[in-house]
Amino acid sequence: MDEPGSAPGGDPVDGGATPPSSNPSPPPGFAPPPAFEAAPSFGGSPSYGGTPPFPPPAPPTEPQAEAPTHSNWRALIAPTEPVDSPRPAPTLASMVAVGGGLLAAGGLFSLLGELDGYDQRVVGLAISLLFVALGVAISVLNRSSRAAAGGVALSILAVIPFTLYIFANADLFDLFSDEGPTGDPWSGVRWTVTLMLGTAAVLWLAGYLFVPTRRYGAYLGAALVAIWLIPLFNLQLSAIEDAVGSFGPVTTFNTIPSDPGFDSGFGDPTFDDPSFEDDFGQFDEDFGQFDEDFGQFDEDVSAFEEPDDPSTRMGVVSLVFGAAYLGFAGWRDRKGDARMATAALVPAIIALYAGSSLLAAHIGWFGRGLLGLLVGGAVLAVGLRGKRRASSWIGLFLATVALGSLVVEPFDESPRAVGAVLTVLGVAIALAVGRTASGPRDPAAGPAPEPPAPPAPPAPEPYGTPEPSPWSASF
pTM to 2 decimals? Predict the structure, then answer.
């Protein structure tokens, strides 16, 4: 028991009196918090430099929508992979499989070459259909690997003789001809060729849209080429029809009389008969009629040798189709469907090149150069936008050749002038592009220098060492 004048702990105090304490004494039974623990926080924020004891709760997750279910019919054409999936890179398996498909197609054409033409049309149709089914079966068996491309190649090529044997029918040809078998045969040829190409395009589009060969770009490319060839064949057939029709109707010649009507014996007393002059006059009239008929034959031959040239119309049609296919390819690239864009880009380049070649003889050297610049620039723009190497190089090649032809044409007779002009122009273009280019660095030139790192934030105080609290300062 403490005596008066001593501290609560038993230590005596001078004067025997206890001075008042600056800090109030804690009530009996109160235990102060340890110094190494952080004081509790209120309102969700740490106090005295401490950290919150628990992390904030995570936001509630939204329920995910279930994948839509399609009917069996829509499942046939619904894509099995995202539209923006990257183009498949060529592999050894796909290349070797395509080679096998091409060999099988060569076997098909060899077998068809042994048939006796129209008399064995049904046999040829059956063999072609069998090879189409064989190509589809190969694609089904190899659907889990890239080797399915071999069946695609075989089925695409087998469609060609299949459509030929379908419409190589004399009765069908007479049906499409004007006025039947004795009428104009050119309408029958025109309709037959149109149906062949149209049927092939429909079959190839079906292979692109439906299982098991869905989304193979070779089918779409072949269909687009067939659609482009329909107007070209019709224009060519119309030109041939006009050329043959200008030959005119069947020319008939009056027969020259074998007996002029007089005796050839000069000693005959009837030689001086006055009827001799009349008979010889009739011979002159017949020979004059022969000259008129032969003159008409010369005119018909001259008209046949100079038919209407359809290359201008064919070139314009090819450019229209090529521009449409190229625009479609660029649109699919912007939508992220690079595989469909590739399938449309190949026939676009073929049609544009064919159109430029057909028009080259009709528009002069300046027109050829300007058209080549336009075609090459358009292909280059689509290739760069879609990050395509082959298309970009093809467009650059076409544009460069066209620009070179425009520059060297005035100096065609001077090789030195041509060499000097091309050298100066090429160096000037290379330097100008190097001065104005602001794109990213070439990966082959090395990595770009990294920007300086931002200053590091101040390090937080160690966990569990809060600032002194009033409770710990009093003890």
Answer: 0.66
- Euclidean distance between the first and the last CA atom of the chain, given in angstroms as a whole number: 22
Return the structure tokens found at 51: 């950290």
The answer on 357 and 383 residing in a single domain is yes
The dihedrals phi and psi of 178, each to the nearest 5 degrees, come to: -70, 130
In DSSP notation, 120-186 reads GHHHHHHHHHHHHHHHHHHHHHTTTSGGGHHHHHHHHHHHHHHHHHHH--HHHHHHHSBTGGGSBHH
CA distance 161 to 361: 34
* Angle of CA points 433, 439, 441, to nearest 5°: 105
Least confident stretch, 83-97, 98-112, 250-264? 250-264
Cα–Cα distance measured from residue 49 to residue 461, given in angstroms and rounded to the nearest whole number: 8
What's phi and psi for 450, nearest 5 deg? Answer: -75, 145
Structure confidence at residue 402 (pLDDT): 94
Residues 328 and 304 in one domain: no
For residue 129, the one-letter residue type is: L
* Farthest CA pair distance, the chain: 200
List helix spans (H) across 306-414.
Answer: 311-334, 338-359, 364-385, 389-408
Residues 304 and 316 in one domain: no
DSSP three-state, residue 6: strand
C-alpha distances (whole Å) from 403 to each of 55, 367, 390, 394 are 68, 11, 20, 14
Give the residue carrying structure tokens 């499989």.
Answer: 97
Structural tokens at position 382: 């689509």
Q: Which amino acid is at 337?
A: D
Please count the structural domains in the chain: 3
Q: What SS3 state is found at 42? A: coil
User: With bands split at pLDDT 50, 70 and 90, how would you rate the model's confidence at 472?
Assistant: very low
Rounded to an integer, what distance in angstroms lies between the CA atom of residue 197 and that of residue 223? 9
Alpha-carbon distance of 126 to 123, in angstroms, equals: 5
Range of the domain at 347: 311-434
**Model confidence over 349-381: pLDDT tens digits?**
999 999 999 999 899 999 999 999 999 999 999
pLDDT at 54 over 80: no
- The answer, yes or no, to whether the previous bond of 260 is cis (omega within 30 of 0) is no
Residues 224 and 327 in one domain: no
Q: Are residues 229 and 347 in the same domain?
A: no
